[in-house]
Amino acid sequence: MLDEFQEVELHSPSRKDGISYEQECVLRVYGAQMVQEAGIHLKCPQVVMATGQILLQRFYCKRSLRDFSIKVCACACAQETRVCMLVIHPCGVHVYAYTEQAC
């Protein structure tokens, strides 16, 4: 019997859309790095950045990398955790532009 982690690895939505395990890992790490960079740019505490990274990973357990851009989702997760921490922050577009230049 497969444990939950192996089940996600073998039958993720991305895998069903033809994305290899290696490519999915690379893209997920890239997304986590983008969340980290956006959090640093927004001067968030590490716990906020980690929460954004967890949201990103959980999102891709249910959705495919083929259907949703890793860059857009990473910036959305970074911004969402920032919003939850403070009041609505109007710099989401600027964060996306910043991470586009950095990556």
List keywords for this structure.
103 residues, mainly alpha, Cyclin A, domain 1, 6 helices, 75% helix
List the helices and strands and how they pair.
Blueprint: H1 4-11, H2 13-16, H3 21-41, H4 46-62, H5 70-85, H6 92-102
Helix pairs in contact: 3-4, 3-5, 3-6, 4-5, 5-6
Radius of gyration: 14 Å
How would you classify the helix and strand content by structural class? mainly alpha
Sketch the major β-sheet. none
Termini separation: 40 Å
CATH class: Mainly Alpha
Total helical elements: 6
Order of helices and strands: HHHHHH
| Silhouette | elongated
Q: Can you give the helix content as a percent range?
A: over 70%
SS elements, strand count = 0
Low-confidence blocks of residues: none
Determine the mean pLDDT. Answer: 78
CATH superfamily: Cyclin-like
Number of domains: 1
Task: Report the β-strand fraction as a percent range.
Answer: under 5%
CATH architecture verdict = Orthogonal Bundle
CATH topology: Cyclin A, domain 1
Structure, described:
- This protein has one domain: Orthogonal Bundle (Cyclin A, domain 1), CATH 1.10.472.
- The termini are far apart.
- By secondary structure, it is mainly alpha-helical.
- Helix 3 packs across helix 6 and helix 5 packs across helix 6.
- The longest helix is centred in the first third of the chain and has 21 residues.
